[in-house]
Amino acid sequence: MFNRHRLTLVILSVVILALSISIYQQNHVRTMTFYEQPTFDNTNQLETWQLFSEKMNVSMENSKIENFRSTLDKNLTILSLRFDLVEKVNNTFHVYYYSQCVSCENDQVSINRSTAKEWLQYDQMVYANSFFTSLDNLIEQKFLSNEAFNYQLIVSSGWRESRIMEGSYYLLKDEVIQEISNDTPQTVSGFHFQVIGNDQPTSFHTDEDTTKAVFIHDSHQ
C-alpha cells in the first residue's frame, strides 16, 4: 500500500514537472537585445526593429507595438526600454513583453511570451514598421533633444485614436513636423508620442512645462 501510494506521488510529481517545463517554454523565449547601440539618436530605429524581428522570427508585416516606454539621459543615452509586441498568426495572437534595463549591471533583458485567441485592440494598434519609421523621423528632426532636463521619458500607447486638441501641439505629417496653434478645438487623428522631461530618471509627470506631444498622421497605419 505504501509503495503504491509512493509510486502515485512520483508519477504525479513527474506530470507536474512536465507541465511546468511546457508552460515555461511557451512563456519564456530566448533573450534578444533590441538596442545594440547605447545612444538613441545614433540608432536607426526601423533597421533595429527589422533585425530584431528576424532574430525573434516574428512577422514584420503582422506585428504591432503598444505600451512603449524608453528612458534617456540628456545625451540621449538609452537607460531603459519596455514595449509589448503583438504578432497575429492565423487566428491567434503571440504577445511578447520586452524589458531592457541598460543602466543595470550586465544590461538586463527579459522577454516573455503569451498566446491569446483574441486581442481586442489589435486593429487599433500601429504596425511596428510605421511606429519605428516615425521614431526615425522624430530623431532626424531633433524633436527628442531637450537640454532643459537631465532625463526624458518617451511614451506611446501605440494606439490610433482621435482627440480634440486646442492650443499648441505638434503634428508629424509627410515626414515633416509641424507646430500647430489652434484658437478653436480641432480633431486630430493618429497615434502619438509624449516626450516628458525630468531632472531624475524616475517619477516623471506630465504638465505643459515638462511635456511635449506629437501626433503621427499616417493613412497607411
H and E order: HHEEEEEHEEEE
Largest sheet, if any? 9 strands, mixed
Treating each run of at least 4 consecutive H or I residues as one helix, how many helices? 3
What is the CA-atom radius of gyration, in angstroms?
21 Å
State the distance separating the first and last CA atoms: 66 Å
How many structural domains does the protein architecture include?
1
Low-confidence stretches: 7-26
Topology:
Elements: H1 2-27, H2 45-56, E1 63-73, E2 78-89, E3 92-101, E4 108-116, E5 126-127, H3 128-140, E6 151-156, E7 161-173, E8 176-198, E9 211-217
Helix pairs in contact: 2-3
Give a quick summary of the entry:
This is Deacetylase PdaC domain-containing protein. This protein is of the alpha+beta class and 221 residues long.
Please characterize this protein's 3D structure.
It comes from Thalassobacillus hwangdonensis. This is Deacetylase PdaC domain-containing protein. Helix content is 23%, strand content 42%. It contains 3 helices and 9 strands; from the N terminus they run ααβββββαββββ. The protein has helices at 2-27, 45-56, 128-140, and strands at residues 63-73, 78-89, 92-101, 108-116, 126-127, 151-156, 161-173, 176-198, 211-217. Strands 1, 2, 3, 4, 5, 6, 7, 8 and 9 form a 9-stranded mixed β-sheet that branches. The longest helix has 26 residues, at 2-27. Residues 7-26 have low confidence and may be disordered.
